[in-house]
Write a structure and sequence with these properties.
CATH class: Alpha Beta
Distance between the termini: 20 Å
Organism: Thermodesulfovibrio aggregans
Number of helices: 3
Shape: globular
Strand content: 25-35%
Helix content: 10-25%
Order of helices and strands: EEEEHEEEEEEEHEHE
Radius of gyration: 15 Å
Protein name: L-ascorbate metabolism protein UlaG, beta-lactamase superfamily
Number of domains: 1
Largest sheet: 7 strands, mixed
Strand order of the largest sheet: 7-8-9-10-11-12-13
CATH architecture: 4-Layer Sandwich
Pfam families: Lactamase_B_3 (PF13483)
Amino acid sequence: MLENIKWLGHDTFKIIGEKIIYTDPFQIKKPDKADIILITHEHYDHFSPDDIKKLLTPDTIIVLPKDCSGKIRAKEIIVKPGDKITVEGIEIEVVPSYNTNKKFHPKEKGWVGYIFKIMGKRIYIAGDTDYIPEMKTFKDIDIALLPVSGTYVMTAEEAVQAAIDIKPKIAIPMHYGSIVGSENDAHYFAEKLKGKIDVVILKPEE
């Protein structure tokens, strides 16, 4: 399954399965076609209309929080934490994503992460979040895509605690290397989880 997950930097993943799913497209270098685009929140490095347009087809469906809606001419599904939907045969759970000890991503905004099932695997994309209590309730996660850079999201140390709560089969660090954070954060995360959870550090695709 890992060969089907392409990290394009920051929070942007291309996941290839029954459908082509993109998460938070940002700094897309070449046009492509997405079946489903998952948007976690409205900040420019997660909700970038110019980048989204590079992936749109007449059939692309964008799943997004309410404050992102109506800004792009496309098929939209507006979601909030707690929602469960099926899009083009893909099961998607919408989960909370927020800060607990900083002000950038307030819980009351209703911004989100997603757990979606593709190729028989449950993948969690966290969005911009701190280590939050809801993570203990996420079940049967095969692959967790977790921010590790601190400043706007949880630190690598906090991400280690999140991974231990979520218990994925594989954890992949993200949200470093472009705006904040460095590969050192990813390596720290991997080192601290050694013997507990398999960590795969992906190289950004060109």
